[in-house]
Structures are given as C-alpha cells and as structure tokens.
Amino acid sequence: LHGPNSDVALVTDKLVAEAAGLPRIPAQPIAEAARALHQAKRIWIAGYRSCRSVAELLNYELRLFRPEQVQLIGASGPDDLDLGAFRPGEAVIVIGFLPYTHASVGVAQAAYRTGATLIAIADSLSAPMAEGADHVLLFEAASSPGFFPSLTGAIAIAQSLAAVTFSLGGVAAKKRLENTEARLTAASTYVSEKG
User: Which one, of 16, 61, 73, lies nearest residue 158 by Cα?
Assistant: First the structure.
C-alpha cells in the first residue's frame, strides 16, 4: 500500500480480514477434539516458530485446571525425549501452517506411531502434520494482508479447545482451577487492586 494514510488502510484491511476468517471456523470439530482432550490421560502440545505462542497459550490455559497432565513439547529438554514418551490414551496437539517445519511433522508422526490421539491445528487438510490425524482443526493463515500470516484463527481454536475441555471437566475442573488461582494469589502473582 502507498499514499497518505496507507498505514491506517493496512490496519483496517488486516482487522477486517482477521475478523472475516473466524466465522468460517466450524465449531463441531473443535467440540469433538475437546472431548478427546477431556478423555486423554495426558496432553502434549507442539508449536514451532510463530506457532509456539499459540502452543504456549493453550498449554497455560489447560494447565490452570489440569496442571499435572499437560506438557509443552520441548519445554524441559530436547523434543526427542518428549516424543519417546507419547502413549496410547494420550493426546498430542500440533499447530502449524505453510511452510511446515520438520519438527512439527516429526511430532505428528511420533504421535501417530504410538497410537496417541493426534489433533492438528493447521491451515490445510493436506498439511503434513495433519496426515493420519484424528482431528484436523482448520484456520486461515494466509487470508490476512501484510507480510505476517494470521494466527487469529489458531488462537481462537486454542481458546475454544481450552474452554470446552474445562466445561467438560465439570466440578472437578472448576475445583482444580480454583486451587490454581488460590495458589497464584497466595504467591502474589497478581498486582493488588487496593491503593
């Protein structure tokens, strides 16, 4: 874009494009994937490069009410240590878009080989990390103007997964969330609203 107010025009175009992609994300596949997460003994999450932020957000939100059962792949050591720990009955979430990283494809292949439930949050059904996936949740990475691909849909999917998984957890999930919030408050994690 060139000319006066081209920066404002780009912002406007970007916001319109980001918002337009959200209604095209179908709810049913996300709800089905959340049911799989609810039933999983353990949840592993992988996102590389810009998708790492989406993975970290989902990891944070799920750990608020499932603190011992959620792990960000590669957070505490080399990825291959985590890949060797996948088991049937667990769920592995891989987030990515074109161009795909070898690491994300490797995580998906490891999940598939071990019989873990594979959930791919991707920009295409033909994404290599979606091959053999039990659940493919699609977002539009390329629909936004400007250089950087859009992660808005991926973030919306991640937050929807966390919300539905929490809801399915019922009273037990609510109690674990309350315990986590109480622990964070006691540790003075939050700024006091007083004075």
Answer: 61
